[in-house]
Design a protein that fits this description.
Largest sheet: 3 strands, mixed
Strand content: 15-25%
Structural class: alpha+beta
Number of helices: 5
CATH topology: CBS-domain
CATH class: Alpha Beta
Radius of gyration: 18 Å
Distance between the termini: 28 Å
CATH superfamily: CBS-domain
């Protein structure tokens, strides 16, 4: 199973924000769209970073409410790991586990093309396991 299959099911829609927007706008978008992360992009949809709920909590814990007036770039993770549509679910799980993050932007031709969350990956993996179990039961029943 590949990232392409996940995106075909969930779509390529990604909520993104400019690095120059205020952190308060990022908080508003995270809340409004009920997502755990926003991809930080420039006008050409080139990935500049990612801002997650964890990033927001960290900066608020350090600097207090005044941090909400700072630009997103001050709190975002700038070194973003990404994947492409050819990565497998197992590869994505490994990247997320080793990097200890829950959102992985998908790039195509150097531009943002989608996002995969740990929830997407777990859902797909559970579907695979259930399908394998059904196949084994069917095999045993016909043996």
């Amino acid at each position: 199973m590949t990232v392409k299959a996940i995106l075909e099911q969930k779509g390529h829609n990604v909520f993104s924000i400019s690095p120059d927007e205020k952190l308060s706008e990022a908080v508003r978008m995270l809340t409004e769209h009920r997502v755990g992360a926003l991809v930080v992009t420039n006008n050409d949809r080139i990935i500049a970073g990612i801002i997650s709920e964890r990033d927001v909590v960290r900066v608020l814990g350090k600097e207090g409410a005044a941090a909400l007036d700072h630009p997103v770039r001050s709190a975002m993770t700038a070194k973003v790991r990404s994947c492409n549509e050819h990565h497998t679910v197992h590869e994505v799980m490994e990247i997320m586990t080793l990097g200890r993050f829950r959102h992985l932007p998908v790039e195509k031709d150097g531009h943002l093309d989608g996002i995969v969350s740990i929830g997407d990956v777990v859902k797909r993996r559970i579907e695979d396991v259930e399908r394998e179990a059904d196949q084994i039961r069917a095999y045993i029943a016909t043996a």
